[in-house]
Amino acid sequence: MKNRTRGVLWSALVFPGSGQIVLHHWKRGAVFAVLSIAVVVAMVFTLIRGIWTGMESTALQGGEITLSSMGTVVVSSLKIIRAHFLFPMALLWLASVIDAWYTGKKTYLEN
Fold first, then answer.
1. pTM of the predicted model as reported, rounded to 2 decimal places
2. pLDDT per residue over 59-70, tens digit each?
């Protein structure tokens, strides 16, 4: 298997930046990995904050916190994540795959 194919597969299937690391482009791989981790951390933080705020507002209104109300809050928090974070993460992942392809191609042509 060619190096560029291996790099693309790693970036596409494992984690953004892993293809660059496989191709020995450490800094590029680290940039993609750090950006991806930052987006994932922001997603988790937004989800937890949304759930916390929803449960807090339910309790302050005197409502009972049930499994159904928790489900509603989680679904609304997931909608926020989908609206704000899914597209940037997909773009970052796609950019990582494309960069791994070009990096692998450039490395192949240099050798």
1. 0.79
2. 788 777 777 878
